[in-house]
Amino acid sequence: MVVLLLAQVILFSIFPLYFSFLSGSLRRTSFYTYIALVLLIGGFFGNVYSLPITEKINISGGNLCYGAFMMASVLFVFVERDIFILRHLVRLVVLVNVFNVSLSLLVGKILTTPGIINPHSISAALFDVSIAFIILGGSLIIAELLFLFYCFDAVKKCQWSYPVTTAVYILLFIFTLCLDGVLFPFIAFGINPVVLDIVIGGLSGKIVMACSFSIPLIFFAIIGHRSLSAYLANDTVKWSSLFTINRQLKRELSEKNYGLKQAATVFNNVKEGLAVVDTSGLIIKANPAFCSMVGLSKGLIPGVTPIHTLFSSADSDMLPIDKSGHWRGEVKFGKASQGLLTITPVGAESSQAETYVYSLVNIDELKETQNELFYLARHDPLTGLENRRVLDEIITDLSAESICLIVVDLDHFKDVNDSYGHGAGDMVLSVVGQRLLGTLSSIPTFTAHVCRTGGDEFAVLIVTSDKEVIDQLSQTIQGACKSVITLPQGSEIYVSATLGVSFQGPSDKGDILQKADSALYAAKSEGRGSIGYYEEKLTSVSQRKIQLSVKLKQALEAEQLQVFYQPQYASATKKIVGVEALVRWYDAELGWIGPDEFIPVAEEMGLIEKLGEWVLLTACKQGKAWLDSGIKDIKMSVNVSAHQLRFGQFMNTVKHTLLKSRLPASMLQLELTESSFIEREQDVIPQLVALKALGIQLAIDDFGTGYSSLSYVAILPWDTLKIDRSFVNRLPEDKAQRQMTDTILQLASNMDLVIVVEGVETQAQFDYLQSKGCEIIQGYYFSPAVPADKIIFPTNRSTFVRDEEL
User: Fold this and answer.
1) Is there a contact between 196 and 160 (Cβ–Cβ < 8 Å)?
2) What is the mean pLDDT of residues 604-608?
3) Is the peptide bond before 686 cis (omega within 30 degrees of 0)?
4) Is 328 exposed, middle or buried (0-12, 13-18, 19+ CB in 10 A)?
């Protein structure tokens, strides 16, 4: 009996499995015909025979037909992946049931008709009773079919792995077939102990039958892996479509057709190249844009042109062999065009094999723009030289080599922009850049690069550690820069360059560019147009300067600086007649930091204006405090940096300070060095005249140490001339100093200027200056610069009292 069962299962299964590998309308016709035949004979085979597998397991012919129907229906839907298949199967069940019911009625009528020959004495009542069972069986088949695929759809949403999903589908198939063996008896005969025994007794047969017909499904899941995977990858079913009436269905189809027309219009008119390719790589369809881009001007013959002959990959000259997944990459096509190609697989549909959509976009303009941006990101747009970014990359790449870096800084380049305009400055930079490239011809055997690192600064990198070669190249660079440059308007410009040179070997650590910059700044401090070579101490100097710049900004914001005051004494009476305000800085980490160190840092950091304003306001407030305490006729002298006079705002600063501190302008004296106004007379002289008009006194500080131009002494509204300590430090023994001091004192006397001598430290110096009629003495002989509360103004004595005597 088992053999007979297997033979029938194989017979019922072999045809649907074969049909699943057919294509198109032939497959659908075969499935519909087979399913209809199984339905037709199933209603009668139940009464024809049963297979007793064991004493308790019986399988009727009708159950076998039912299992074959469900198995074939599942295979049909798996292959087609179309919701309308379920509609057609439901209709087919209804039509077969109508036929079976009509046939039963007709046969029953015939058997009751007088004169009909009925040799086997078949009762007409048998057909009358079978009508109800036919209707019930058909209804259950429809319900179970919809239930089964609803469950399949729910499982599909879980997105489990292929083996797990397949196993769950098989279990659902077996469960649904067994469910029929429970529902049919209970609905047909009601729920009672007798029926329950029948159901339990027949359930084992249902299980065997269901398991038997699950074997073809397992076989299909293995050999038809691709079709079942495509079914699982499809969107879930819109179940309302099963109950849509034909009018609604036609409307939906009409909308879909309209959408297809729109898609066809887009396909044919879009600028993006589109082509549909089959699994063998032959072009099935292509839009005009694609044909034009790849050079198919004579048109496309479907299924003839291989797609791979039209492209080559920008990376490997080959397109991907495995196109099972999405692919995107750059390709070359046509004569010399570049494009972005996207390959998208389209799963096989009910009547179509799997295809691929090739989408091609021309990116020639994008590539050109990309190349331009890449060039601009790595080159200076003015000179065309490589920039700082490239220099850093080259230094990194040459970390295992011995290299030398020369930083070239043009001297007084700002004067070119100020005098001739930025256009002339740009021309100078371009000419210098080309000249630097030309200097490399003097070292043709060495690898070298020229970069513009910013502003008026260039860098020349040479792969060598030969100092003689670098010395020769440095001299060549300076000579090239000094050559005359003729502007378009005919003006001739001469520029010089200061160079900073640094060497670095494979084992050296540190930033070679930072070292070269340190050498450059050291060279500038010695004089423009010189060459500086890096020494280890320069790095510590630079680091110290950076450390001071950070701390100075913090100290200035927190007002942690101090103002000390050095008294100025009348030589005749030894009374204090004035004080000079001097800024002092004590840091908890670095200790006392001298003004000669942090004042240049403040100037380089752009903090000198803020620092100068703070010192001026602090000094004026202190002068007002002394005045309020009864100390009169004390001149408050405050130094002014050249940077404070640059933008013409210093006058407003002084006015605001006097207004805020309420110090009389006549008690304030501003000290300026000669460098504050040399070559900037047009900007500075009007400011000095305006300050003088306010009643403020002006003093030349450190006279004789700068340009010492007597014309400035004559034309500027000075009140005081301060002689620098360098003219008195060897008095009275040094004859030259005596003669120089005597000359300056006579000059000041002739011009009615008050003389203040700084740096007086000994009794001999004081006695000599007093004998020459010097009016005011300032220096350590009397007192160093001290905090305001350390200055004692004697009220009852007219003579000077030394600190140690107080």
Assistant:
1) no
2) 80
3) no
4) exposed
Tokens at 149, concatenated: 């695929």
Q: What is 559-805's CATH number? A: 3.20.20.450
> What CATH number was assigned to the domain covering residues 379-534?
3.30.70.270
Determine the Cα–Cα distance for residues 12 and 32; give it in Å rounded to an integer. Answer: 14
Residues 6+ apart with CB under 8 A from 623: 634, 636, 661, 663, 667, 668
Q: What angle do CA 726, 730, 732 make, to 5 degrees?
A: 125
Cβ–Cβ contacts within 10 Å for residue 447, how many? 14
* Residue 618 CB contacts under 8 Å (≥ 6 apart), including other chains: 563, 581
Backbone angles phi, psi at 371, to 5 degrees: -65, -40
The pTM of the full predicted model, rounded to 2 decimals, is 0.45
- Mean local confidence (pLDDT), 235-245: 58
Q: Give the pLDDT confidence score for residue 301 in this predicted structure.
A: 62
Task: Note whether 464 and 391 are within 8 A (CB).
Answer: no
Q: Are 232 and 30 in contact (CB under 8 A)?
A: no
- Give the helix/strand (H/E) hosting 216: helix 193-223
Selected from 3.30.450.20, 3.40.50.2000, 3.60.120.10, 3.40.800.10, the CATH number assigned to the domain covering 268-368 reads 3.30.450.20
Neighbours of 93 (CB within 10 A): 22
Higher pLDDT, 236 or 20: 20
Q: Which of 66, 46, 51 is nearest to 3 (CA)?
A: 51
Q: Which runs of consecutive H residues, i.e. helices, occur in 634-709? A: 650-661, 681-693
352 neighbors 23 (Cβ within 8 angstroms): no
How far apart (Å, rounded) are the C-alpha atoms in residues 648 and 659?
19
Query: Rounded CA gap, 679 and 707, in Å?
Result: 11
Tell me the domain boundaries of the chain.
2-234, 268-368, 379-534, 559-805
Strand partners, 273: 360
| CA gap 275, 279 in Å, rounded | 13
The DSSP 8-state label assigned to residue 564 in this structure reads: E
Q: Residue 13: how many CB atoms within 10 A of its CB?
A: 22
Q: Which two tokens stand for residue 589?
A: 């980490």
* 557/561 Cα distance (integer angstroms): 10
CB 76 within 8 A of CB 38: no
Q: Helices (DSSP H) in 224-379: which residue ranges?
A: 225-233, 246-269, 288-294, 364-378
Q: What is the dihedral of CA 424, 429, 430, 432, to 10 degrees?
A: 120
Per-residue pLDDT reduced to its tens digit, 484-527? 888 888 888 888 899 999 998 888 877 888 888 888 888 887 77
Token code pair at residue 555 = 């100290």
Q: Where are the alpha helices (DSSP H) in 558-649?
A: 595-605, 608-628
For residues 160 and 203, the answer to whether their CB atoms sit within 8 Å is: no
Q: Give the whole-angstrom CA distance, residue 784 versus residue 780.
A: 5
Paired tokens of 468: 């003689």
Counting beta carbons within 10 angstroms of the beta carbon of residue 756, is it exposed (0 to 12), middle (13 to 18) or buried (19 or more)? buried
The C-alpha atoms of residue 47 and residue 552 are separated, in whole angstroms, by 109
Query: What is d(CA 17, CA 497) in angstroms, rounded to the nearest whole number?
Result: 90
Cβ burial, residue 142 (10 Å; 0-12/13-18/19+): middle
Contacts 24+ apart (CB under 8 A), 473-478: 473/406, 473/439, 473/442, 473/443, 474/406, 474/499, 474/501, 474/531, 476/439, 476/442, 477/406, 477/408, 477/436, 477/439, 478/529, 478/531
